[in-house]
Amino acid sequence: MLTQERLHRDTQSCDEMIELTAMQRKMFICNKLPLYRLPVIYDIEGAVTDDEISGAAYRTMKKYTALQMNYHYDPAGRKFYQKFVPLTPDHFSVESIETETPIERYVKNSKLFIDLTEQYPWRLQLVKSENKRYLYIEFHHICIDGLGIRNFEKSFLQFLSGDEPDVPGEFDGSAYQLIRSAEDKNGGALDSLDMLRIPAAKAGKHHTMERVEVIVDMRRLQIIDHLSRSLHVTKNACYQGILEEALVKHCPGSVYGTVGNWRMHSRNFSEIGCLVSLHPKKISSKLSLLEKITQGFIDQLAIFHKKEMESFHSIEFPIVYSYEENMFSHFRFIPVDQLCKFDVYFRINISKLQTSLEAEYNSSKYREQDIREICEEFFRLLDSMGGNIVGFDSQPYESI
User: Fold this and answer.
1) Which of 54, 253, 320, 322 shows a CA-CA span of 20 to 30 A to 8?
2) pTM, 2 dp
3) Same domain, 368 and 339
4) Which of 125, 150, 182 is the last residue of a domain?
């Protein structure tokens, strides 16, 4: 364990302090709450030793400066900072656990939340469960995002196989500094937008989260594939356009948030850090479903090619959408958060095993039926698109 006293002693030679981004500040303020957890597990093959796993994990942590940060609040300046604290073998440990609990349930039941004031923003365990071995890594979102975990996975597997991954450039905090600059420049420019909202069924003030997940079957995947090819757009644009059409049938307002990434601006996709961004997306009531899909694709390209960085961190988006496709090759992400980041968070999650529409929602405001009705509308619209495909065996919609 890396104690606060030891952190203070070891950082005396590291002078540079980097101010946290707005998103990181929210995460730090929520320290030790069941929120912003990013746990992944790796199935260990029989011939690989625990020492080999621990060694590869240490070398990977050591490779990325963003994973060697200490976080603190300066009450005098009322600001939040991160500071580089070089990882040493004395600061690194991997706990060994044996349990009869299935691995996914073990991770979901884990209460060992990371304390950002006392340790690095991650912890590791070697878990033996049901005669299988796993590396369980719990990251805090403050130091990494999904693309960062993918970069971590790639380096970890290279180290484990005996290869030497490319060493990233010297970390100078420039990505975070660019984000902070964008926040200061235009962070509150769009506070008066007509936000899309699902009418609340309850007046609760808590943020307890529940989750609905619906698998997208093979027939529906074929419809999406045909749509994307015929319209010359991404699958993301297809899913997003259909979700927009479903939302406007149930919700007043026109603007929701979409999850992006600051790496789009730097074009440095090998970097590790918390570089998630949020962008407003306005739904036009004048567009047909096919036009919504096409316009969504155009909007995605515009964000990718936009040179100037814009921050919308001060905007509270009640509804947020993201698209995640084949994030990891060997790691398995296990959702465990018990509190909501947003009132309703819709996500298309595509992995090697399956594609699903997931919805995390504030259960103190909404009933499960409220969310399922939108999901049902989404799949009803998706199924209806199959009827427009020549030669496609259109089938009646089946309730989820």
Assistant:
1) 54
2) 0.89
3) yes
4) 182
